[in-house]
Amino acid sequence: MMKAAIYRKFGGPEVVNIEEIPKPSPRNTDILVKVLATTVSIADHRVRCLDLPKGFWIFGPLALGVFAPRKKILGMDIAGIVQAVGKSVTKFKPGDEVIALTGANFGGHAEYVCLPENDPISLKPKNMNFEEAVTLVFGGVTALSFFNRFPIKSGDEVLVNGASGAVGTAVIQIANHFGAIVTGICSGGNAKFVSLLGAHHVIDYKREDFTKNGETYDVIVECVGNASFERVRDSIKPGGVLLLMITDLKGTLSAWLNSKKSGKRITASQDKPLAKDLVSYPPKLGR
Description:
By secondary structure, the chain is of the alpha/beta class. Helices cover 24% and strands 26% of the residues.
């Protein structure tokens, strides 16, 4: 048996309870990981209380459950130690310290989790403890899944809307690594933090609307949900990119048409996360 954080109905944090459930057993190509660290991400929040972007309430229950959650254990990322492996596993062995993205399968908020060895899994960086290493996963893989399609180039001017969140902080560091000039949008209280991560400029969204200051950018990365193409079109340079890491149904469906009409590249879709997105450091963009 093992302990897990279980939710059997949708709602606020109070619907989550610690329960004893059977410990999973690895199949032929699975690894069993003892979880030593995980996170509670915005995705966990949205799924737990069905707080979905506008329009997705139509499809959300079909994927997540109509009357009760399909996946009763949340947690999209883990850091831990491999306890056992299936007989066909070749990439990992018991005792390996790993980080992994469980993704839409969730399951990270438990003492143990089984993962196929070909999932986004990597050995934990040796210079980081489990609590530090797990923070790389959700935001880092999400950022790279977009940047693999639209690589950042040295000298690009990149704006990150929602710069202090899990994804935004990863975007800042990756863009900075590739030589971009980064502007972070966040609250004034997070300005110093965002600067320390590598943002060259920081705008407090409570004091200034970045869409009205006349500045334009090669890439705008939307991590909040309030920077639609209609709002930011004049802030994107000709031929520039809008990466909608979160958007509503309208933004998703209109991305292709807006791209064709404007000559600016807009996407709300990301590549499938791969193990290389965790293994590669420094990251190598493109696939």
